[in-house]
């Protein structure tokens, strides 16, 4: 029998990524201020996830950037990056695409 879920995180603004990485025990240096929105619906074994985020004045290890915008959807074991934009000193990387990816909240057998 399916286990339905509905989790909505309307938004979180100005989240300090260095504090968040400490909370989750991430060893790599991560810095910046993030704002994000997320929603998880559907069956816990086959969730539908929508996520968007923006990071200002970011740093990951030795890589420093001005800002990053990210928008993604996940359902039926497909991760779709709708938008990825990274800006650094007047230069920009853009991307989007889909890949198969199995994700589980509870661990599938």
Topology:
Elements: E1 4-16, H1 17-23, E2 30-43, E3 46-60, E4 63-75, E5 78-88, E6 91-100
Antiparallel strand pairs: 1-2, 2-3, 3-4, 4-5, 5-6
Q: What does it look like?
A:
The structure is a single chain. With 109 residues, the chain is mainly beta. 6% of the residues lie in helices and 70% in strands. It has one helix and six strands. A six-stranded antiparallel sheet has the order 1-2-3-4-5-6. The longest helix is centred in the first third of the chain and has 7 residues, at 17-23.
Supply the number of helical segments. Answer: 1
Count of DSSP strands: 6
> What structural class should be given to the helix and strand makeup?
mainly beta
Give the biggest beta sheet: 6 strands, antiparallel
**N to C succession of SSEs:** EHEEEEE
The total number of structural domains is: 1
The stretches of 5 or more residues where confidence is low (pLDDT under 50) are none
Shape: globular
Strand content: over 45%
Helix content: under 10%
Distance between the termini: 15 Å
Order of adjacent strands in the largest pleated sheet = 1-2-3-4-5-6
- Rounded mean pLDDT is 88
Radius of gyration: 16 Å
């Amino acid at each position: 029998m399916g286990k339905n879920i509905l989790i909505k995180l309307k938004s979180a603004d100005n989240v300090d990524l260095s504090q968040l990485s400490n909370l989750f025990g991430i060893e790599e240096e991560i810095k910046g201020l993030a704002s994000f929105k997320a929603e998880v619906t559907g069956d816990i074994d086959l969730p539908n996830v929508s996520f968007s985020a923006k990071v200002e004045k970011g740093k990951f290890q030795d890589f420093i950037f001005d800002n990053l915008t990210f928008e993604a959807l996940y359902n039926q074991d497909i991760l779709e990056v709708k938008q990825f934009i990274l800006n650094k000193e007047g230069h920009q990387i853009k991307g989007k695409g889909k890949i198969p990816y199995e994700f589980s909240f509870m661990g599938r057998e």
